[in-house]
Design a protein that fits this description.
The chain is of the alpha+beta class and about 150 residues long. It has two domains: about 40 residues; about 100 residues, 2-Layer Sandwich (GMP Synthetase, Chain A, domain 3). It has three helices and six strands, in the order βββαββααβ. The strands form two sheets. It has a three-stranded antiparallel beta sheet, with no helix packed on it. It has a three-stranded mixed beta sheet with strand order 4-5-6. Strand 4 and strand 5 form a beta hairpin. About 15% of the residues are buried.
Length: about 150
Amino acid sequence: MASVSMHWRGGMLFHSRTPSGHDVFMDSSPEVGGYDSAARPMEHFILSLAGCTGMDVIVILDKMKLLDKIKCFKLDIDYERAKEHPKVYTWIKLVYTFEVEEGVPRDKIERAIKLSQDRYCSVSAMLKKAVEDFSYEIVIEEVPPKE
């Protein structure tokens, strides 16, 4: 069993220390009593999705011996939340964008993302059970190798 504690620091500011020993703060806007000093809980949540699948993809590409051919990797997430409470995510689209050296097999990158989405990323797995429309897109641009 694992556990974590969160401590109220006034207003809407909360602090916790993760099991790995890192400090995390959450806050809200002044309109609802916050100080606007930290990310909101749902912002942390969507960033957790980006971090989970992004790290998976990097590990898988490294095992495929392709990481040195990846010049840039960016992950954008478009999303929409319900208008009424609870304001859950109603659709999420991830856009994986890569700049790679010429000749990197597209199917390898697609496989790395598919493995993350279908097997490894626990945040994606949880969200797919709750979000009405969950999808992703892959954009790959080849760039000449630097000499």
